[in-house]
Amino acid sequence: MEIDNDNKSKCPSNPVSHVPDRAVKKPHRPDHPADPQTADPVHLSSHAKTYQDARKKLSTLPDVDADSVREIRERLASGRYRVDPEQIAEKMIKDALTNDD
Question: How far apart are the first and last CA of the chain?
Fold first, then answer.
């Protein structure tokens, strides 16, 4: 197959620019937000409301329980913090067996 360089000048440099405006769909974007009285109502299920309430309550809680951290630090410093290796091993095995990953 041979490419004729003369045909290059006949091809538009930007073929999309030759598409008529009516063929291009533009997203509908109202200039103003919907009027609350004409907008469709939103109804949340009781499960969704419970979930929403739980998320609000959780967002107010700290990520770390400062009292527990303080207690463990004190126990470590005083030598009263004991680690039970059997209990840790049992929990690791239980977690591994119940993990769905």
Answer: 55
- The per-residue DSSP string of 6-75 comes to GGGGGS-S-GGGGS-GGGS------SSPPPTTTSPP----HHHHHHHHHHHHHHHS-SS-HHHHHHHHHH
Give how far Cα 9 sits from Cα of 2, 3, 56, 78, Å.
16, 13, 64, 87
Selected residue with higher pLDDT from 20 and 72: 72
* pLDDT tens readout for residues 54-98: 999 999 988 889 999 999 999 999 999 988 999 999 999 999 999
24 φ/ψ angles, rounded to the nearest 5 degrees: -95, 120
Mean pLDDT score of the chain: 78
Q: Give which of 90, 70, 72 is closest to 81, Cα–Cα.
A: 72
CB 49 within 8 A of CB 55: no
